[in-house]
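Researcher: Following up on the earlier apo prediction. This time include the ligand. It's zinc ion, with the SMILES given after the sequence.
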Amino acid sequence: MNTITILGSGTSTGIPMLGCKCEVCKSPNVKNKRLRSSILLQVGEVKVLVDTTPDLRTQFLDNDIDDIDAVIITHDHADHLHGIDDLRPLCFEHPLSIYTSLKCEQDIKTRFPYMFKEKHPDAGSIPMINLETVELGKQFDIKGIPFEFFLLPHGPFTTLGFMQGSFAYLIDCSDVPEETMKLLKARNLDLLIIDCVQRPAHKTHLNVDKCFKFIKAIAPKQAGLIHMGHGLEHKKLAQEAADNFNFPVFPLYDGLKLNYR
Ligand SMILES: [Zn+2]
Ligand SMILES: [Zn+2]
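Model: Understood. Below is the ligand-bound prediction.
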């Protein structure tokens, strides 16, 4: 069995959103407190972090994570990337590889040039980070673990989605292209984690209706909703998902662990 730990389940602002006094932001239910979206995959002994959010340090402390073997970055938006600096203590002693798309690799180098510069002899430690581009549309191994990566439209941008075994991760997408749908349906998924940002239509994300439509079409054994904004209250969304499906579909929450084959 492989394990997914939900490190964060919230949209880009995090929930509570600073300054907001809405019912969800003020909710005493800890399942309504959402750090920025990120997961940790554990396959055998190999731990792969997906996205380096601005909450990375807190997420590692909260979940007792003291080392990882590799990182996948889905795209360069701040809520998925800007915690990258907090990887430093994990790669002072040994190199750490970050896997991403070609475009995102270039964006990371532009945004965080100091992390990839030659070490100045009089400067302090610099992280040993290797940036690697994943190959799309075919098996691509990370630390001996087989992944299959594909690009998803995120409004005018693109995000890296992937399958690992019978698990699929579709974050920050506004659509799932037909050829990717074919791949996902053919895999007979144990677990799908999918973008579900809010109730009204959204230009760069799946809203509840679109998200549910894709879950129905993909028909995994279970599906978890992620990247949720403050318009979505945990209990109400859980009830709505239960009413709409005859298999488990549920909002994720920070700290939750799930298994897949
Ligand atoms: Zn995002
Ligand atoms: Zn709010």
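Model: Residues 12, 37, 77, 79-80, 172, 227 surround zinc ion (ligand 1) (CB under 6 Å).
Researcher: Noted. I'll compare it with the apo version next.
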